[in-house]
Amino acid sequence: xxxxxxxxxxxxxxxxxxxxxxxxxxxxxxxxxxxxxxxxxxxxxxxxxxxxxxxxxxxxxxxxxxxxxxxxxxxxxxxxxxxxxxxxxxxxxxxxxxxxxxxxxxxxxxxxxxxxxxxxxxxxxxxxxxxxxxxxxxxxxxxxxxxxxxxxxxxxxxxxxxxxxxxxxxxxxxxxxxxxxxxxxxxxxxxxxxxxxxxxxxxxxxxxxxxxxxxxxxxxxxxxxxxxxxxxxxxxxxxxxxxxxxxxxxxxxxxxxxxxxxxxxxxxxxxxxxxxxxxxxxxxxxxxxxxxxxxxxxxxxxxxxxxxxxxxxxxxxxxxxxxxxxxxxxxxxxxxxxxxxxxxxxxxxxxxxxxxxxxxxxxxxxxxxxxxxxxxxxxxxxxxxxxxxxxxxxxxxxxxxxxxxxxxxxxxxxxxxxxxxxxxxxxxxxxxxxxxxxxxxxxxxxxxxx
Length: 450
Prior knowledge:
Layout: E1 2-5, E2 12-16, H1 21-38, H2 43-59, H3 61-72, H4 76-100, E3 104-105, E4 112-119, E5 122-126, H5 134-145, E6 149-153, H6 159-172, E7 179-181, H7 189-194, E8 198-204, H8 207-219, E9 223-227, E10 232-236, H9 242-254, E11 264-270, H10 271-286, H11 306-321, E12 325-328, E13 332-333, E14 336-337, E15 340-343, H12 350-353, E16 360-366, H13 369-377, E17 381-382, E18 385-388, H14 392-398, E19 407-409, E20 424-425, E21 428-429, H15 434-438, E22 442-449
Parallel strand pairs: 5-6, 5-8, 6-7, 8-9, 10-11, 10-18, 11-16, 15-16, 18-19
Antiparallel strand pairs: 1-2, 3-4, 4-22, 9-21, 12-15, 13-14, 17-20
Helix pairs in contact: 2-4, 2-6, 3-4, 3-6, 4-5, 9-10
């Protein structure tokens, strides 16, 4: 059985029977059968269905959001916003996929030559609990519009959300087998990837999970896309707009109770502004409302599981022993972890080197732009970095020096259907969203007509 525990009450929300191997194989067979006809549907037909999915998401966003909050503790207002963002992704691809996958003419000595973009088949998505709807829809919307079919292996604590996502596509009128939820544990993933009818796999999750999935996919020469962890830096220069930067940095670190791969986990402050900014930052974090995630004015809920809060507590304790200083928070009770700010953080410390997946941020000071770049790049992660400055020309000069997959200036790193999303180093490979994302799971076929 797959169990979900409400992290706020610590009471069981539900338990779900796991699919047997026979049920899994039957689901894969249905998906493969569906693909033979789905791939032939016109973009107009697929678009109509995806717009219906967007409508379903909007009409029943409160219902879907409530289940997200019960399962993993996301504050309800943020859960509603997540569902709304999924509707946006559906609308974006419904409106743009045909153009993104149009034949690309290339001038050669042929009578006609071009690249066509054709679907691969059944794609397995292995998804995490932290954004249980968004992570799935940013895969599913482009994959289905491209003519692929999808199978979902979701995190075991968000199986209701997984079933709800399948329900969205069913209610929208997608054919049986076009999108299938597989209630299974991680132990069955390897055999699914090895199944010949599975043509590719995408994973959002941890480095160990990504390494395991990529290894199996690689052994079968199958395409994989990995969106893994991050340790994004928020780099604050002395000429920034302090009030706007404060607001953005607090949101970047503490939305979704800090449980985001693209959260700003390292706050790098220029020495000339460090004292003033730190005082205001501590005040802003102190004023964040913690409590019942079902309350609309709660900003900080519990972490998704008790063991995750315990892991964050261990990282904090190690860093304090290494010389870091707790400036705010630092206490844990069950899955609730106080919003925590830590000073005197240096590159050798645990909370600088490792990903901290919760409401904790470490502060490091720098003196020059070159030093800031070096501090950012010392991380083994490479998902994104935010720069805060009024000197846009300086920012543009610095951008090529960062090794990350994204640089945002005067804004937090965020995913947007119009822009490619993905990282470098141990943050993964491949891209989601935009034209780059929809083209990850297609056969880019060269056509040459003499």
